[in-house]
Amino acid sequence: MGNSVYICDFYLPDLDVFIELKTGKSFNKHSLSKPIQCIQRYPNISLKILDREGYLNLESKYKNYISSWEDC
Fold first, then answer.
1. Max CA pair span of the chain
2. Is there a domain that residue 42 lies in?
3. What dihedral do alpha carbons 26, 52, 59, 40 form, nearest 10°?
4. Structural domain contains residue 38
5. Which of 22, 52, 66, 72 has the most C-beta neighbours closer than 10 Å?
6. What is the DSSP string of the chain?
7. What is the CA radius of gyration of the chain?
């Protein structure tokens, strides 16, 4: 990854999982390069990449529990 810094969208400490959202036109090979490099470089961490369907699934389950939930 060189000298660049990669920061995931979310970290879920109770599950020890990092989440990267790719919900729109940004879901392509180029936009996945940094998360994939992170997974390869740090195989002991759990990083999940969610597409729009995965995001909508989470939204349907948890939106009512999180007052500041933002629409994608």
1. 40
2. yes
3. -70
4. yes
5. 22
6. -TT-----SEEETTTTEEEEE--STT-SHHHHHHHHHHHHH-TTS-EEEE-HHHHHHHHHHHGGG-TT----
7. 13
Residue 8: exposure state from Cβ atoms within 10 A (0-12, 13-18, ≥19): middle
Is this prediction's pTM over 0.85?
no
Residue 30 resides in a domain: yes
Residue 1 in any domain: the answer is no
Q: Are 59 and 30 in contact (CB under 8 A)?
A: no
pLDDT tens column, 49-63: 888 888 888 888 888
Q: pLDDT for 7-62, tens place per residue?
A: 888 888 888 999 888 877 666 777 788 888 888 999 999 999 888 888 888 888 88
Q: How many domains does the chain fold into?
A: 1
